[in-house]
Structure formats: structure tokens, C-alpha cells
């Protein structure tokens, strides 16, 4: 996966200083520092909204619905109720976790559970 590195804080300061003292238009300053005009707009918005110009952490995709304690509770529930359907599992966790049946199925697969002949059975080879 290709990930670009964030621009250094020193470059961010120099670009903002050039804009603040009016060294040119944003397009000219973007060309001067070899950055995009859109990045300058984003940097100005970040300074205005947050008050900080340091690189912000990147979102690494969707977070798992079941994690930590809820993941352990799901594992224990399926072990105690191997004949539970996905709908029944969803009902059991409806007060704590809001998710789809597909999310539950994916999490169970991640835990190593397989549904065979109306029962959940744990595949120890693929478990966490």
C-alpha cells in the first residue's frame, strides 16, 4: 500500500509565513514551495479550526464493532450457545453493540468459528 509522508512542520511554517506576509497568491506560493494549492487550503483550514498545524493522524479505515471486552463476550456467548443463529446473537448484543448480521458473521470467522450442521464449532487453526 502506498502512503505519502506528511509534510514537515518547518515547511508548514514557511508556507503559512509566506501567506501571512503576502509574498504572492496561493497559487504562486504553492509553486514556490512545490506543494499543491489544495494542500495550502487544507493547512489554512486546519490552522483556523484546530489552531494547530502539525500533521494529523490518518484514519486507518473502519474500526471493528466487536473489540476488547465485547469480543470476549461474543466468543463466550457462542461457546455457551453453539446453536444460536446470527439473528439471536444480534438480539443478545443489541443493547451494547449496534451492527449488522454480516458484521457478526465476519467477527465470528475472525475468531475461528464455523457454522456446521446448525451448530457453531471453533476451528482452532484459524483462531486468534
Residue runs with pLDDT of under 50 for 5 or more positions: none
Strand order of the largest sheet: 1-2
DSSP helical segment count:
6
Estimated structural class? mainly alpha
The largest sheet, given as strand count, sense and whether it forms a barrel, is: 2 strands, antiparallel
Rg (CA only)? 25 Å
Residue-averaged pLDDT, rounded?
Answer: 86
Shape: rod-shaped
Could you give the distance between the termini? 24 Å
Proportion of helical residues: 40-55%
SSE arrangement, N to C: HHHHHHEE
Count of beta strands: 2
Strand content: 5-15%
- What is the quaternary state of this protein? single chain
What report would you give on this structure?
By secondary structure, the chain is mainly α. It has 2 domains: 9-49; 69-122. Helix content is 49%, strand content 6%. It has 6 helices and 2 strands, in the order ααααααββ. It has helices at 9-20, 26-33, 37-49, 69-80, 86-92, 101-111; strands at residues 113-116, 119-122. The chain has a two-stranded antiparallel ribbon with strand order 1-2. Helix 1 packs antiparallel against helix 2. It is rod-shaped. The two termini are 24 Å apart. The relative contact order is 0.09.
Summarize it.
The protein is mainly α.
Characteristics of this structure?
128 residues; mainly alpha; two-stranded antiparallel sheet; 6 helices; 49% helix; rod-shaped
Task: Please write out the topology.
Layout: H1 9-20, H2 26-33, H3 37-49, H4 69-80, H5 86-92, H6 101-111, E1 113-116, E2 119-122
Amino acid at each position: 500500500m502506498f502512503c505519502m509522508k506528511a509534510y514537515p512542520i518547518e515547511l508548514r511554517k514557511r508556507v503559512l509565513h509566506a501567506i501571512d506576509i503576502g509574498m504572492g497568491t496561493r497559487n504562486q506560493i504553492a509553486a514556490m514551495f512545490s506543494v499543491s494549492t489544495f494542500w495550502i487550503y487544507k493547512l489554512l483550514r486546519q490552522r483556523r479550526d484546530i489552531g494547530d498545524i502539525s500533521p494529523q493522524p490518518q484514519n486507518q479505515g473502519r474500526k471493528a464493532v466487536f473489540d476488547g471486552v465485547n469480543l470476549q463476550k461474543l466468543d463466550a456467548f457462542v461457546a455457551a450457545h453453539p446453536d444460536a443463529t446470527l439473528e439471536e446473537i444480534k438480539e443478545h448484543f443489541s443493547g451494547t453493540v449496534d451492527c449488522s448480521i454480516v458484521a457478526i458473521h465476519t467477527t465470528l470467522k475472525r475468531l475461528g468459528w464455523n457454522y456446521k450442521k446448525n451448530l457453531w464449532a471453533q476451528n482452532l487453526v484459524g483462531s486468534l
